[in-house]
Each structure stands twice: as C-alpha cells, then as structure tokens.
Design goal:
Elements lengths: L2 H23 L7 H17 L23 E3 L9 E2 L2 H15 L6 E8 L2 E8 L2 E7 L5 E3 L2 H4 L16 E9 L2 H13 L8 H9 L4 H5 L4 E11 L6 H10 L9 E4 L1 H14 L7 E8 L2 H7 L9 E5 L4 E13 L5 E12 L2 E7 L3 H7 L2 E2 L2 E5 L7 E5 L9 E2 L13 E2 L8 E2 L5 H12 L11 H9 L14 H5 L6 H14 L4 H7 L7 H11 L2 H6 L2 H6 L5 H12 L1 H12 L19 E5 L7 H10 L3 E2 L9 E4 L5 H9 L2 E4 H7 L3
Parallel strand pairs: 2-11, 21-22, 21-23, 23-24
Antiparallel strand pairs: 1-6, 3-9, 3-10, 4-5, 4-7, 7-8, 10-11, 12-13, 12-16, 13-14, 15-18, 16-17, 19-20
Helix pairs in contact: 1-2, 12-13, 16-17
Bound molecules: 2-(butylsulfanyl)adenosine (IVH).
C-alpha cells in the first residue's frame, strides 16, 4: 500500500469535517455545496478502492447501513438525570432561596440560563475524539443504541475538531425544526401516512427508526448542554464547559447566558418567552443551572434530579378540552370554515373556546366529532387548532360532522372546486362576503371608484343600503349625505366617482366582479375572446378551455359563476344602473404583439396603470414582476429592485422617453 491514498484520505476527511462544521454547526459555509459534494465523491471513490482504509469517523459513514431488527440496549455509565420543574415565578424564587441556603451563600449566585429545548435527550460517546456510540436517554440508566441513526445527523461531528479527551460522554437534545416538521408532515400526508402531532414526536420517531436510511432523510439537529462520563476534559463552570463543547465542534444553543441572581433569571425567562414564538424550533421553558462546578458538587443530587439545576417552564400551549359544537364560518372569499366551539380552557395563558378545523378533509383525517375530547394547541398568536382526538375518552354518543351543502349565511348552494380543500359559497350577494367584494369592486385596478374606502363600504353595508355591487349604482345624494361624517360635498364627489366608473372597460368590469382565478390578465384574455359578458356567460366549459391560456380551473370557476342565478341578476342590475357593457374597443394596432413590459419607478407622462393599459391596447402584455421572459422594463424615477433584477437577467431597459417613442407618442 502506498502512503499516497492514505494521506489523501486523511486530508479529505479533515476537509469534510471542517466544512461540515462550518455549514451545519456554524451556519457559515466557506465553500459551495457543489465543491463539498466533489470532495465527498472523491473520498467515496478512494475508499471504494481501499476499503481497508475506511475509518468509523469517515464522512462516508453518515449514510447509514442495513436496517436493524431491534435496538441494542446502551447503558449510561453516569445516569442521565431529569430536572425538577418550576411552574411559576414563586416556585423559581423558592429554588433560588433553597439553593443559597444549602450553600450558605448570602449573596446572589451565578446561574447559567439555557433554553429548554423540546426534543429528546441523547448521549454521544467520544473516545479520543471519535464518535463511537449514540444512545437515547431511556429510563436514565439504560437507553437504546441508535449510533447509526445519530451518525446521519449532520450537526453531530463524527470526530471532534480540537480537543480529543480520552473519553467524553456529551449530552444534549435532538430536535426537529418547525419548517422541517411541517415539510415532513406534508410529505406524509401526500403519502397517506399518519401525521406526527408535534416536532418532538417527529424527532423521537425519526431517531428511533430501525432503518437508518430513513433517519438520514429527516433533517434532525442537535444542541449539546452537558457531559456525563469524562476523562480528560477539565472545566470549572457550566459556561466554560459549553464554550469547550463549541470549540470541539459540537453545536451549542446561541441563547445561553450567564447571569447573576434570581432577578436576572426572571428577566431572561421573560425575554425567552417573548422569543419563543419566533424561534424556528420548540422550547418549553428555560433551564437554570448553578454555574460553578464546585458549587454543583457541594449541592449534589437527589435520586432523580440534581439540586443545582431546575427547569423553569413556560405555560403549556397544549391543553385538553371538549368540543361542544361545530359551527360554520363563511370567510370573505366565500370559503366555508368549520369551527369547533369548545369548553373554555386556558392555553399558554390565553382563554380559548374556539378552534379552526380548516376543512372537511381535516375533520375526516383526524376523525373529529361533536362531543370529542381533544388536544388543542396555540402556536403564536394564530387561532388555536385541534391537534388530535383523545379517542380513549369516547363514550359512543359523539356525533360525526359534515359541512352543509348550503351556505349557512345566505342559503345558496355551495361548490367545491376540483383539487381544492375548501367548499365555497359563490353567491355574490352573500352578506358574509359582500364587504370584501365591494372593496375589490371599487379598487384602483378594478372600477376605480375614488373615495369609496373601507369605512364607507362598512357603513353602506351595515345600513342595508348596499347588498351587492349593483346597489352602488342606485345610491342617491340624500342617502349618502345622511351617513355619519359625510358632508354634502363629499357625497357629491362620491356620486361623481360612481358615475365615472360606469364607463370602465369590460375587462375591468369582469375583473371587478371578483371571480376566483380571474385576475386582470385573465379578464383581458376572456374579453378578447368573447367580447361581451353575455357571450362569456353563455360559454360552456369546453368553449372556455379552447381559449389560449385558459385552463380547467379558470373554466370551472367562470362557468360556476355565471350559472348562479343571483350573479346573473346582479349583472342585469349593473346594466340597469347604467354600467356600460359595450364590447371592448378594438385595439388601435398590434404594434406590441408578443412583447411584455414591466413598469417600475415613477413615470411622468402617465400613471403606471395608464401605461399598462396603453401597452395592452397595442397588443402587448403588462406584468408586475421581472423574469427572463420579460421583453422590456420601463424604468421611471427612483426605480428599485425590479430594475436591478432586469440588469441581472439582461432584460432590455427603456427610459420613459424611449418607451414613448416606441409607442409613437
Ligand atoms: S440538563 C441533570 N439542559 O429536559 C441535567 N436539559 O426535564 C439534566 N432539556 O432530559 C439535563 N434542554 O431532555 C438540560 N438546556 C438543557 C435542556 C435540557 C432540554 C431536557 C432534557 C432533559 C429534560 C429534563
């Protein structure tokens, strides 16, 4: 055997360990992913030519091996204790007092404060710097040997970077981040597999996989917070230990902090409680540890937990309660949302009595029934949701729930568009949706009714003056002037704005109706193809799908819309109210046929909408975001990121003058 491959292999292992640490532990890579892959491939090829040179700490050993029949037991030479809990400030202050009394200390003591990570505890055994075993906590004395699975976790070094003590048993928490958890559950949902209730269960399930190849696909992570057996690593405090662990290439939580005295711990607790919502992983409290090792030894341990540390928990965010009823809410877009009405319970300090059940699929998947006891949770400020049913508490009288086919607000028939989870009420006049529809109808890019803001719309709807968009065209000066805080002059201005809107083009009117999937561009395409609302309303789904750019989703939505009696009535009343429904003007030419434009920055000769309409009237397309397919970006005053993007993509850039020249102005 020549010395060459031996040396190169050592070099590659060191390089890969180094870059792995930069990427997974420090979040600060120094080389590209492609370069990393090239090094790893070189290592694997070289190892396959020299199998006798493969070492247990080689980066090639992360990918697992054959599935196991069962996990072997792994004894912890130093027991993995658990922690006592403090559930309130008083309980924590009692711990501090007890601790100082036991130490005979009159003064404040130094504490290490750490986030209490909500995952599962594991032990990593390093012999002379090389990872030889990974195990779960088990009962604290004997856990399960999950070495092959542990090795697939990229933030766990297979070899320590700097110090190589004779023996070091490192302890920490294996966790799964929120994003990773949601992605895993989405994937499981697609494959019809049962979902994990929370990230901790998902982390535990992933680590306790008999097939390490499966674990390797789960993006687990680990933060280290302590040691068990130790021969060769000297430290005087928890702070020093954590710093050493970091230097050795192990991942240590960035929010750890040494503080003096109980008051400072309370402040840290409060700070972390605030941070809890925005962290990308779950924490359920903080862990407070007496910092000095000498003091820890003086305090000692009880059977199950040390006297020098305590878990100072946050209020729980999961609770169990009973579903008393399920009601249906109609959202502003017409979506029917089932909502559980529950016996009120405090979740994380907030009284909760309602939780969204999302849609029928969700109810079926979780088999949620009226009368069920359920686990609910609140994540951040969002409305709470039902995690799972406590099936063991069923008595047999629970009632299954099915969403009604009729809208509970207006009684009209609802539809469930293909491929969508939500059932919708598509009746334009449904009061639940009416305000939102009117805001949209009056909007700048739709009928552009100046002065018809949200407050006015709210008043008009609440006073019963406007029940659908057509009613706007029958409003009188007296009615408007009688509204709160409405001067005669303003009422007059609004009537004038409504008058002006009667002459908007047909494609704007179609867009203003707020049909699902019919945005500005689709509205133009449809009016180009069918010329009038009448013709469009009579078109079959097939006829609609003949039109270039119109797919089954739009076709279904448009056809459903015009089949609804109430919608037809509203269109007839819009006509009666004087809204012009003449076919769109023929294009002045096809000068810009096939070209697409993005306008950015402030233009001087026109508003952005006017410029866009000009492009469309000349046969071109106006879009809002720049891509490689954009033909021209027209840059006005103070153009920003869109202009940068155009430069990056090499899209032609025009000044406003050049654009005017191009269109012959
Ligand atoms: S120290 C003797 N530090 O909490 C010291 N534990 O309730 C024992 N945990 O089993 C552990 N974050 O799974 C410690 N920063 C942290 C922790 C932490 C989470 C978990 C760990 C332990 C449980 C005890």
């Amino acid at each position: 055997m020549s010395a060459e491959p031996h040396r190169r292999l050592q070099e590659l292992r060191d390089l890969l360990h180094f870059h792995n640490h930069r990427y997974y532990v420090l979040d600060d890579p120094q080389i590209s992913d492609a370069e990393y892959d090239r090094l790893l491939r070189e290592l694997i090829v070289l190892e396959s030519q020299h199998p006798e040179l493969v070492t247990p700490d080689s980066p090639s050993q992360r990918v697992g091996g054959a599935p196991l029949e069962a996990f072997a037991p792994a004894a912890h030479t130093v027991p993995m204790l658990s922690l006592d809990n403090a559930l309130s400030e008083e309980e924590f202050l009692a711990f501090d007092e007890r601790t100082r009394r036991n130490l005979g200390a009159a003064d404040d003591i130094d504490y290490m404060c750490e986030p209490k990570l909500d995952g599962l505890a594991v032990e990593l055994v390093y012999e002379r710097g090389v990872l030889v075993q990974g195990s779960t906590r088990g009962d604290g004395y004997v856990g399960e040997d999950v070495t092959l699975n542990i090795k697939t976790i990229k933030s766990i070094p297979l070899k320590l970077l700097h110090l190589h003590p004779q023996l070091l048993q490192v302890r920490g928490e294996v966790i799964l981040g929120h994003r990773e958890f949601e992605q895993l559950n989405r994937q499981r949902e697609n494959q019809g597999e049962p979902l994990f209730a929370n990230p901790r269960n998902a982390a535990a399930g992933s680590l306790r996989q008999l097939d390490p190849a499966v674990t390797a696909t789960r993006p687990l992570n680990m933060f280290c917070y302590g040691v068990g057996g130790n021969q060769g690593l000297a430290f005087k405090s928890q702070a020093e230990l954590l710093s050493l662990l970091g230097q050795m290439g192990l991942r240590v939580n960035p929010y750890i902090r040494t503080v003096r005295g109980a008051r400072a711990v309370l402040a840290y607790h409060q700070e972390m409680a605030g941070r809890r919502e925005s962290l990308p992983y779950d924490i359920d409290g903080i862990v407070v540890k007496v910092n000095e090792v000498a003091l820890q030894e003086q305090l000692g341990a009880k059977t199950k937990s040390p006297r020098w540390a305590i878990a100072f928990k946050f209020p729980a965010r999961q609770e169990v309660t009973q579903i008393l009823d399920i009601t249906v809410q109609v959202g502003r877009t017409g979506a029917l949302t089932p909502v559980a009405v529950m016996a009120p319970v405090s979740v994380g300090g907030v009284l909760v009595s309602r939780a969204t059940l999302h849609n029928q699929d969700e109810i079926d998947r979780k088999d949620i029934r009226i009368g069920d006891w359920v686990v609910i949770q609140r994540a951040g400020d969002v409305i709470p949701e039902v995690v799972t049913v406590v099936a063991s508490r069923r008595s047999g009288v629970e009632k299954p729930f099915v969403l009604p086919e009729q809208c509970p607000v207006c009684g009209s028939h609802t539809v469930r568009p293909e491929g969508e989870a939500a059932r919708r009420c598509i009746n334009l006049a449904c009061p639940a949706q009416i305000k939102e529809r009117i805001y949209h109808f009056a909007g700048k890019r739709a009928m552009d009714i100046d002065g018809l803001g949200e407050k006015l719309v709210d008043q008009l709807v609440e006073k019963g003056l406007v029940k659908d968009v057509a009613d706007l065209y029958f409003l009188t000066l007296e009615q408007l002037a009688a509204l709160e805080r409405m001067a005669d002059k303003s009422a007059q201005n609004i009537l004038e704005a409504i008058e002006a809107s009667r002459r908007r083009s047909l494609d704007r009117l179609l867009f203003a109706l707020g049909i699902r999937f019919v945005g500005e561009h689709v509205a133009r395409v449809l009016i180009d193809a069918f010329h009038s609302l009448e013709e469009l309303g009579n078109a079959s789904r097939d006829a609609l799908m003949q039109v270039h750019e119109i797919g089954p989703q739009v076709a279904e939505s448009v056809s459903d819309f015009f089949t609804n009696e109430e919608n037809r009535r509203i269109i007839a009343r819009l006509r009666q109210g004087g809204v012009e429904m003449q076919p769109a003007q023929q294009r002045s030419s096809d000068q810009l046929q096939g070209l697409s434009f993005v306008f950015t920055g402030a233009l001087t000769a026109f508003t952005r909408e006017e410029a866009e309409r000009l492009v469309v009237s000349l046969g071109g397309r106006a879009t809002s975001s720049v891509s490689a397919k954009t033909s021209y970006v027209v840059a006005g005053e103070a153009a920003g990121s869109k202009l940068d993007k155009a430069r990056q993509l090499g899209v032609h850039i025009l000044t406003e003058e050049e654009f005017k020249e191009m269109v012959g102005l």
